[in-house]
Amino acid sequence: MIQPEAQIHIKNLRLRTYIGFNESEINNKQDVIINAWVRYPAVQAYDTDNVENAVNYRTICKEMIAHTENNRFLLLEKLTAELLALCMTQKNVTFAKIEVAKPHALRFADSVSLTLSANREA
Predict the structure, then answer these.
(1) Mapping DSSP to helix (H, G, I), strand (E, B) and coil, where does residue 24 land?
(2) Which of 9, 11, 19, 8 lies closest to 112 in space, CA to CA?
(3) 39 touches 69 (CB < 8 A)
(4) Short name of one Pfam family for this protein (predicted)?
(5) Is 18 helix (H, G, I), strand (E, B) or coil?
(6) For residue 99, which of 87, 119, 84 has the smallest C-alpha distance?
(7) What is the pLDDT of residues 63-92, one digit of tens each?
(8) CA atoms of 5 and 40, how far apart (whole Å)
């Protein structure tokens, strides 16, 4: 029997937050672009067509917005790890990956980004 996993992709969530340790970064909010991938078993969701059996991407997105905009971070690693942990708190999630990019971090680059991922242990 096929056991499909759904993959949700929250794509290019554009937010502003305090991130960095230079004086200008400490005193001014910066743009960040967040991409999130979340996987979960989809069988119950599509068999029942019941939202209670799916991962609510709106809830995840709202939590990511609130966490990013209401906190300060010195490192991309900290913000990315905390967003990853937030995604993994959803009970059905088996895998999550978060990429956070700072578009204006380097003069000659489109952005600098960091990606972290996690698997739920069986």
Answers:
(1) helix
(2) 19
(3) no
(4) FolB
(5) strand
(6) 84
(7) 999 999 999 999 999 999 999 999 999 888
(8) 5
CA 53 – CA 116 distance, rounded (Å): 26
Nearest to 36 by CA among 8, 62, 58, 75: 8
17-74 pLDDT, tens digit per residue, is 999 998 988 899 999 999 999 999 988 888 888 888 889 999 999 999 999 999 999 9
Tokens matching residue 78: 């900290």
Domains along the chain with CATH numbers: 5-119 (3.30.1130.10)
Report the predicted TM-score, pTM, of the whole model to 2 decimal places. 0.91
User: Tokens for 98?
Assistant: 């978060």
